[in-house]
Amino acid sequence: MFSKNKVTGVLLAITFMLSLSVSSQTVYKEAEGILVMEMENSKSPLGKWVKKSDGSGWSGSGFYEFTGNDHNGSGSDRDPQEFRFKIAKAGIYGIHLHAYNRLDGQPADKCNDAYVKVTGDYTSGSNVPLSALTQDTKLYSSNGGNVWAWGFNLDGNGADHVPAKYNFKSGEEYLLTVSGRSIRFQIDRILFAHGDVDLNVAKAAPESDTVGATPINNDQLFNDNMRTGSNITYTNGMLQFKDLQSGTYSVFLTTLNGRTILEMPLRVAENGRTAACLNLDRIVNGVYITRVEGNGIYEKKVIFVNK
Known about the structure:
Blueprint: H1 4-17, E1 26-29, E2 34-38, E3 49-52, E4 63-66, E5 81-86, E6 91-101, E7 113-119, E8 123-124, H2 130-134, E9 137-140, E10 149-151, E11 153-156, E12 159-163, E13 165-168, E14 173-180, E15 185-194, H3 199-203, E16 210-212, E17 221-223, E18 236-244, E19 247-254, E20 260-268, E21 272-279, E22 286-294, E23 297-305
């Protein structure tokens, strides 16, 4: 079993790291084929995206600049930013990033990209394979550098320098993840535009309205301490929940750069307290993010695994 000092250390680390967690997320609402989200309104749990407001040409309260990796995108930093949104008007949408690549002496095709992926129930709206849309794929801006412009082309995972097109369904909720790739790439806002919408009108639209997601609050996700299971190998982590509505949830364990390393269903037969037992047998000690989704609930917390 854990010693008293070890448990205390784990709990202190969890308490400290909880300042990095996202308690709940709002959901952006598409209207008349237009969905606009200001990048700076997301959270940057790792601090690799830095909010700035210098210069001109941007909207909202500022923009984010990625400070990880190098000008070629080499490095392991990602710091994923997540945006939940709901579609009312079904059809094919394109994604556009209002972006700026601050070159600082580098060639025009450097410092000009990020990773994007969308999860949810949809199909590809073009010849781009669905797998390129549901995993981190580079989206770049070819604006020549040091100027605000709209980037929309994907490169990699079967997408050969072509726009991303998503065939979204009405009434469905989706999750967009934007992760850093190259240093000094700046993003002001994110636009999804339906194929029958005037793109110039969409680019000038204000930020979309939002509704609050129903969160699991910090009291509901009340025990992040890694416990033993029924054996003595200390390979099971116990997450306990209370006051959950009946239904099916998904529990994810991810690294800090967004890579999912464990996923499991959590079924609640009756409203009340339940638990998820995470098999940590092959998980090395470190800091991870747990994510819980289902029944309109979205919650992300940071945990410290010390087996």
